[in-house]
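Feature request, filed as a ticket because there's no other form

It would be nice if the structure record came with a short human-readable summary line next to the tokens. Right now we just get the raw output. Example of a typical job, pasted below so the devs can see what we mean:
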Amino acid sequence: MGDAGDRATPAVPTQCRITVAGPLSVAAGRALRSQFGRALSVSRGDQTTVLDLGGLDQPAIRGLLTLLWDLGHDVVAVISQSKEGLS
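Raw output as currently delivered:
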């Protein structure tokens, strides 16, 4: 049996900004609003869409990226910062 040092570090909530090329599809918009609700902010630029989310852990970010890829979106950038790092 391992000791407490063998356990995985708990997930730290993260502020996350994901930029995708072009507009967000209707299916992606519905899925994201259903899953993340008020934690999600969507803004549209000339050539990209920016998704800002708060309170996500690494598995949630991975799930979000997988959803976007599965729905045919090109992810341009992912920026995340732990809430511990925010001042």
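Something like this underneath would help us a lot:
The two ends are 39 Å apart (CA to CA).
The mean pLDDT is 83.
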